[in-house]
Amino acid sequence: MQKLLDMITAKMQQAFADAGYDAAFGRVTVSNRPDLCEYQCNGALSAAKQYKCAPIAIANAVAEKLDKADFSMIEAVMPGFINLKLSDAFLQAYLEEMRSAEDFGIEKFGAGHTVVVDYGGANVAKPLHIGHLRPAIIGESLKRLHKFFGYHTIGDIHLGDWGLQMGLIIAELQERQPDLPYFDLDYTGEYPKESPFTLSELEEIYPTASSKKTDPVFAEKAHTATFELQQGRRGYRAIWDHIMGVSLPDLHRIYDLLDVHFEKWLGESDADPYIPGMIEDLKTKGHAVESSGALVFPVAEEGDKKEMPPCILVKSDGSAIYATTDLATMVQRMQDWQPDKMLYVTDKRQNLHFEQIFRAAKKGGIVRAETELEHVGHGTMNGADGKPFKTRDGGVLRLEALINDMTEFVRAKVVENKIVDETEVEDTTDKIALAALKYGDLSNQPTKDYNFDLERFAAFEGNTGPYILYTIVRIKSILARYGAWEHLPIQVPANIYAKDLMLAITKAGPALEAALKTSSPNMICAYIYDLAGAANKFYHETRILTEEDKALQAGYISLIGLAKRILETCIDLLGFSAPEKM
């Protein structure tokens, strides 16, 4: 379905052509003065230079060629603007087509293409902390948005499960329990099926081991253990299996609380088998060269305005690093899925890292020349005071604790205000809390830092998730009281509030497309806030359920029903849903 602005522009271009001028001058924009008009064309000003004619004369000539049935106002004003307002009939016909079409007639230009969204970035053996919130919910939203536009989407958590933290845990476990069979090189039997540590014990083992990294003796043990694990030492691999078996269920549980779901739970360990072949290929092609005992891939290009260090593939001690596993992961993804696009959602402080590996992937032929590689670098979440978010004792707050804090705060409001019956408190609380948390984050531009403010995010008024939910629930209530409404046509005489709502609805497709093209879920938030505002004004100022004209009432119901469907679609793209009551 053609976008409304494109339709109007096409009509304006035809009018320019019919008046004897170049159609290219007929570009139409949304008016920045809605008190004067809805749309505007300034092409006559530019055309005047080419045709040596007064712009107002061109504007008048073009205005005469426009179809009066499409516009309720066509006005040429000095010095040469053409101001427009759409007719009720034209707008109703457009909204009726939106209502009847699948997904509002929005073009599925991603059909036939595959995108891999790399997000989450959790490290096994470590509890998720607040720093994991943004990549999880931004990545989930972008994945859902791509799927909406027809892409085959694959969300991959890309676990940190193969690095030094594994060696640290193994070394610490050996100091605590040296008699375990995993450390006996002569042991040939089956290893215990039961893990030698619980989740809580593992979460204590890692930070203890990490604090010993400055001890050269312990550090050497940890590095050796990491190397031997990666070389396939049997006992260490068994410990690794235990670490994964204990950690993964808890990671699943926390991500489920956020309604974040990955299609693939692959990690650095899965990329490891691809490293040797990749290195040899890069050597053969002349891209991998020795430098101070290390193997590097020079990625600097002529014209770089800042220093671009080479991408290190193998360190001088023979170990691989993040860049190596990231490139090997690309090898695996190209082999298994042939994606047209790979999208990485991580902290923006990793910008240089991704610039290096993207260049290496293209130069080294790891990905196709036309494969899109994009890094969505996000800012940090700070406390309400603008300082880094910390617990009272100065530690890093766990993600589960943040979720619980929001949930408890919302539950208290739900119970105090008796929003729902006791049997519905938990489900309603969970949905409002998730909306408050996700919308509070996603309404900010991804690259920007923001301050987490529990009270502001959970407010039922203002630009918040709960406000959007309240609007949806209010519309649901009106529709439920009316009865069957799903097949009612859009036939609404456009009073000022109805017209504003209708125009807001037509912007759904452009808003979602802009969010996709810029990887900016905040654009969805901005759109639905405007749409919710228009819907609220409409049903506050319009008699709907008490309207005596049944045909008019049906038109009103159909209009708010369409607004509800769009709001529900958008919040699903953001990763939350609305309760039945609020």
CATH domain fold name of the domain at 399-574: Isoleucyl-tRNA Synthetase, Domain 1
Q: Report the top-level CATH class of the domain at 399-574.
A: Mainly Alpha
The tally of helices reads 21
Going by CATH, the architecture of the domain at 399-574 would be: Orthogonal Bundle
Structural class of the secondary elements? Answer: alpha/beta
Distance between the termini: 35 Å
Q: Largest sheet, order of strands side by side?
A: 1-2-4-3
**Mean of pLDDT:** 95
Rg, alpha carbons: 29 Å
**What is the CATH H-level superfamily of the domain at 399-574?**
Isoleucyl-tRNA Synthetase, Domain 1
Which percent band covers the strand fraction? 5-15%
Shape: globular
The counted number of beta strands is: 13
What is the share of helical residues? 40-55%
Outline the low-pLDDT stretches.
Answer: none
How many strands, what sense, and barrel or not for the largest sheet?
4 strands, antiparallel
Descriptive overview:
The structure is a single chain. The chain has 582 residues and is an alpha/beta fold. Among the domains are: 4-86, Arginyl tRNA synthetase N-terminal domain (Gyrase A, domain 2); 164-257, no CATH class; 399-574, Isoleucyl-tRNA Synthetase, Domain 1. It has 21 helices and 13 strands. It has helices at residues 4-18, 43-51, 55-65, 88-100, 133-148, 164-176, 199-210, 216-230, 234-257, 268-271, 275-284, 322-336, 351-363, 399-416, 425-442, 454-457, 465-482, 496-506, 508-518, 522-541, 550-574; strands spanning 28-30, 39-41, 71-77, 81-86, 114-118, 152-156, 289-291, 294-297, 311-314, 341-347, 372-378, 381-382, 450-451. A four-stranded antiparallel sheet has the order 1-2-4-3. It has a four-stranded parallel sheet with strand order 6-5-10-11, sandwiched between helices. α5 (133-148) links the parallel β5 (114-118) and β6 (152-156). The longest helix is centred in the C-terminal third of the chain and has 25 residues, at 550-574. The protein is globular, with a radius of gyration of 29 Å. The two termini are 35 Å apart. The mean pLDDT is 95.
